[in-house]
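Hi L., both proteins are below.
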Amino acid sequence: MSQKFPGSTQKELIARDKSLSAKYSSLFVGKKGFWTLLKYEFVNLFVAPMPGALGLWLRKVSYPRLLKKVGKGVIFGRNITLRHPHKIAIGDNTFIDDNAVLDAKGEANEGIRIGANVYVGRNTALSCKEGSIHLDDYCNISANCSMLSETEIRLGKYCFLAGECYLVAGGNHNITDTSVPIMFQPSLAKGGIRIGEDVWLGAGVIVLDGVTIGRGSVVGAGSVVAAPLPDYSYAVGSRALRIRDRREFAESEKT
């Protein structure tokens, strides 16, 4: 069976014409060059984990040398993971808490743009997989949230996400070919996620690809949003579980 890896990460990992250092630079640093790699490694090894006021000051001084843009008054917590940092822009007075992941990885994507006065909580991951993520001014992203973008995730101003929310733009795979592992089948992106201004997502909310949530909306804790919500919606609950034989999809493709 011929296996095809649709994602850039898998392609980099199996590339036989690249050394380990070249793969590392491509996946994590995103730019070629010995000094670029050295600077990235120095910051991660000595500056990122440093505690106390000295660590805060060193990150304030060193992170702008890695990132695309850093505004005034930005605070970086400890042990932040940066991937392709040259495609990450952060506005004034924003706070990135401990153990956050800012992964702007991709070959031709825009990366991550974070506005002014934004809070990104502890252990929250913003991960680009050839997509982009844009958080507008005054967004508040609580701890342990996750955003995965193969296309685009865009949050308007004053959005508030409670803990453990999950937004995924992409990640759907074709499942009609039962002879090929699902992870090797093509991704079926539906256009990304767009959330309007002043939206509150309760704890554990899941927002699926292709969804637009109108401004002023509130989504209750534990809800699964799979369809667009108009402005000023109040939505609570998850979708009912439906069970079908997956092989029906393969049969329908033949007819």
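That was the first. Here is the second:
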Amino acid sequence: MSGKMKNRWIALYVENQVGVLAKVSGLFSGKSYNLQSLTVGTTEREDVSRMTICVTSDDVTFEQIKKQLNSMVEVIKVMDLTHVPVFMKEILYAKVKGIDEAGKAEVFRIAQTYEVRVRDIGPDSVLLECLLTENRNNDLINYLKAYFKNVEIVRGGAVAIESITSSCR
């Protein structure tokens, strides 16, 4: 391998068929590529899905990945988003458990600061719903873990779309 290992982003348009996700993810596991994130959903066309993939690799490996994806019959289009202006967000749920009223007040303050939604409240817990960038979600997680002892995190992979006029990540 040559070059610096870093996160790189790919968007794939694929045929919306049984087994396509398994084939794409199998490519990564079969070659021991470090897959960081993979999200998939249908597009405006019911027969086409779009995958957003984050892989940690060097330049040479990344070029191999793109070539291998392009050679798959079910892949309609491969787009390298690594250096493209995109809007990108990931969903994250954070449940802060075992807190008193002062702890709840702090969670509400944090939610307001990070501009995330409080989705549920229990006698000793608060559930936050976050739609932020990966880095901002990481910041929030680190802050919550530093302040509270019992934090449960569930996060999904990022989705991205190319910007029309500006560069935003």
